[in-house]
Amino acid sequence: MAINTAYTTNSLTQKSDAPQTAAGRITYPATSIVAADFSVFTVGFTPRYVQWCDVTSRIQIEWFEGMAVDTCIKTAANGTRTIETTNQGITICDADGAANTSGKSFKVSQNATLAAILASEIMAWRAVG
After folding, report:
1. Over its length of 129 residues, how does the chain's per-residue pLDDT go in tens digits?
2. Of 30, 62, 27, nearest in space to 48 by CA
3. Are the CB atoms for 77 and 71 separated by under 8 Å?
4. In the prediction, which pLDDT does 50 show?
5. Which residues, in sequence order, are CB contacts of 9 under 8 Å at separation 6+?
6. Domain spans of the chain?
7. How far is the C-alpha of 72 from the C-alpha of 105, rounded, in Å?
8. Which residues contact 79 (CB under 8 A, 6 or more apart)?
9. Of residues 85, 90, 43, the one with CA closest to residue 63
10. Measured distance CA(74)–CA(67) in Å, rounded
11. Phi, psi of 19 (to 5 degrees)
């Protein structure tokens, strides 16, 4: 298994008691998508909510604090919502991709059945701590 790593910087200075947020956009070339891989995003705080959206295909996955590792709620382009427990999803992790509930990163599965990461499409994400 390989991991695609995306580095994120948050240039905003936030008060320590304010919710931490980070957001970004990324487009993947076809050669970087392998179904067994994950993409890791380091945000510098422990996310309590992660939203991942394929802007092009209008597919969205979300992870909320308390959900299991490698799970998500998926919203298809037609609006159908499902809980993904077998096709992987989003996991809070360390920068190296190891699952860790107090990690400062999150990873998104490139699983083809989940279809949250597709080649040449615009992906937008946000994490809230």
Report:
1. 456 655 454 545 566 677 899 999 999 988 878 888 999 999 999 999 999 999 999 999 999 999 999 999 999 999 999 999 999 999 999 999 999 999 999 999 999 999 999 999 999 999 999
2. 62
3. no
4. 98
5. none
6. 3-7+22-128
7. 16
8. none
9. 90
10. 13
11. -60, 135
| Residue among 102, 82, 83 at smallest CA distance from 92 | 102
Spatial distance between the Cα atoms of 64 and 68, rounded to a whole number of angstroms: 9
**Alpha carbon distance 107, 3 (integer Å):** 9
Q: Which of 98, 85, 2 is nearest to 42 (CA)?
A: 98
Residue 32 burial class via C-beta count within 10 angstroms: exposed 0-12, middle 13-18, buried 19 and up? middle
Distance CA 86, CA 7 (A): 28
